[in-house]
Amino acid sequence: MKPSIFPHVLLAVFTTTGTICGVSAAGYNKTDSTPTFQLSTDSSFNFQYLTALASALTGGSDIGPVLGAAKNIKDGDMNSFSEYFKKLAFDTKAEAENPENSYDPINVRDTWFSTSQYFRQADFYLHGNWSNPLIHSLWSEQTAAFDNALKSLPVPGKRIRIPAKEGNFTIEAIFYGASNRKDEKLPTLVIGNGYDAAQEDSYHDFVVPALARGWNCITYEGPGQPTVRREQNLGFIPNWEHVVTPVIDYLVSEKSNLIDTDRLVLLGNSFGGLLAARAAAFESRLAATILIDGVWDTYAGFSQQLSPELIGIFEAGNYSQFDQSIMSLRSAGKLPTNAAWGIDQGLWSFNTHSPSKFLNDSKKFRLIDVVDNIKNPVFIGDAQFETFFQGQPRKVKQSLGDRATLHSFRGVAGYHCQTGAGQELTRAIFAWLNETLRNRDY
Ligand SMILES: *[C@@H]1O[C@H](CO)[C@@H](O)[C@H](O)[C@H]1NC(C)=O
Ligand SMILES: *[C@@H]1O[C@H](CO)[C@@H](O)[C@H](O)[C@H]1NC(C)=O
Ligand SMILES: *[C@@H]1O[C@H](CO)[C@@H](O)[C@H](O)[C@H]1NC(C)=O
Ligand SMILES: *[C@@H]1O[C@H](CO)[C@@H](O)[C@H](O)[C@H]1NC(C)=O
Ligand SMILES: *[C@@H]1O[C@H](CO)[C@@H](O)[C@H](O)[C@H]1NC(C)=O
Ligand SMILES: *[C@@H]1O[C@H](CO)[C@@H](O)[C@H](O)[C@H]1NC(C)=O
Question: What Rg do the C-alpha atoms of the chain give, in angstroms?
Fold first, then answer.
């Protein structure tokens, strides 16, 4: 079998039709599939460096250290990546702990936010071996570093644990107030990630731009996501409303003096675009939903990454052969990093050692069953160089019809989740929210 799973084919899937309501095209060049300078010959590493750099925009890293990592880490070597970021994280932590650093809350939060980011990067490629103690120890470090930073924000962020009502799990959340006043009801963004990112990443991607515009935020994690996966040993569940509804209940009951209940907006990032849309179908209290980007059918996206021979074995129901083929490709170390990481992270976050069980479970994550129940206005991002869910944002748009706005992100803003173009992404989101909520018939 050729190691051809996850061929790194980048499809440019857009046309300019009347269904597109917004287009961003700074730096747009439709013939170029790698629109930015490549920081690694390994496309997965390039993307990770871009995520780390992007976070500098909102105080989550410094540019020199990330470019230093890109220079020194061996391309495609996951251990080298982890080791380098681990050292960078501990070095930055030592700076954060230097007593001379603590005279100023801005120093404190810059160093601790960066420390936390570098620990998350050090963890990113480790999930192939569940026994690796670093999966837990580096995460404790990232959490502790992040909490030190949270405390030094002008309005300190607060960790909250919300018990689920359906299912035996606890939602991990952080509430960020946009105002110190105790009686100002502000619009509020509810933010969730997908397959791999942490709620700590959401602070840099969405919370900072939202707070700056006078929005409160709550970020959350459910089963399958970093802290819940580790502390409660739970993989992804398809009925994501069991995660989001308790978060909305919490806001409405515990934060009623701070939130404008007519302007509660749900945002889902990456695979969270599917999870948020699913939850929105069960939640009537939302004024709008934002999908970064749109995801229609998880199994369709994942199975397109596999070679026809492999998917044939799976679909014929020969699960033992399928598992053996995938795991031997993985352990032979011949897969491109994207594919190796995709398998490691998928098995870990769905909490199974069986690729066929993972793929089978992914079939339950689809919108077709619930899309008609989504009643609020929806913003759907569509990235030109999307790797997993090419073409799916357009399907979500077609199914939602007038309820949705499809926004095409092209060129240098065209990576998965608009990584590296945080300004363009959040400008588009908040401009749409301003327009949509203004026109809303209360
Ligand atoms: C667009 O990208 C292609 C492929 O990299 C390159 O050959 C071409 O010069 C670029 N065009 C512009 C106008 O930058
Ligand atoms: C996984 O990690 C454990 C603990 O570090 C180690 O003992 C074991 O050899 C590793 N397994 C593989 C397959 O690398
Ligand atoms: C709920 O989960 C906790 C922690 O994972 C476990 O100790 C407990 O037995 C579970 N309770 C039920 C009713 O399953
Ligand atoms: C599964 O595949 C293996 C290897 O190709 C083959 O030997 C076996 O007969 C197949 N099993 C079934 C039930 O098709
Ligand atoms: C796939 O899912 C179906 C329905 O949920 C189940 O009956 C079947 O046993 C699953 N197969 C595997 C390999 O997990
Ligand atoms: C839209 O933006 C204007 C100008 O900043 C602001 O006054 C208004 O409150 C915003 N409306 C909504 C619904 O966010």
Answer: 21
Probe residue for ligand 3, chosen from 161, 166, 168, 227 as the CB with the greatest number of ligand atoms within 8 Å: 168
Please give the distance, rounded to the nearest whole angstrom, from the Cα atom of residue 25 to the centre of ligand 1: 15
Asked if the domains at 1-27+158-442 and 41-152 fall in one CATH topology, the answer is no
- Facing residues of 259 across strands? 186
How many whole angstroms from 341 Cα to the centroid of ligand 6? 42
Instruction: Give the model's pLDDT for residue 441.
Output: 56
pLDDT in tens, 51-82: 999 999 999 999 999 999 999 999 999 999 99
DSSP class of 232: H
Per-residue pLDDT at 15 exceeds 50: no
Tell me which fold the domain 41-152 belongs to.
de novo design (two linked rop proteins) (1.20.1440)
Beta carbons within 10 angstroms of residue 15's beta carbon: 9
Alpha carbons 69 and 85: distance in angstroms, whole number: 7
Taking the centre of ligand 3 as the mean of its atom positions, its distance from the CA of residue 239, in whole angstroms, is 19
Model pLDDT, residue 439:
73
319 CA closest ligand 5 atom index = 13
- The model's pLDDT over 305-325, given as tens digits with 9 standing for 90+, comes to 889 999 999 999 999 999 999
User: In this structure, what are the phi and psi dihedrals at residue 336, rounded to the nearest 5 degrees?
Assistant: -60, 150
Closest CA to 425 of 270, 234, 199, 232: 270
Domain boundaries, the chain: 1-27+158-442, 41-152
CATH number of 1-27+158-442: 3.40.50.1820
Strands 378-383 and 288-292: parallel
Mutate to test the pocket of ligand 6, among 189, 434, 436 (most ligand atoms within 8 A of CB): 434
pTM of the model: 0.92
- Which residue ranges have their beta carbon within 6 Å of ligand 2? 129, 131-132
- Closest atom of ligand 6 relative to the 437 alpha carbon: 13
Which atom of ligand 2 lies nearest, measured to the CA of 129?
A: 1
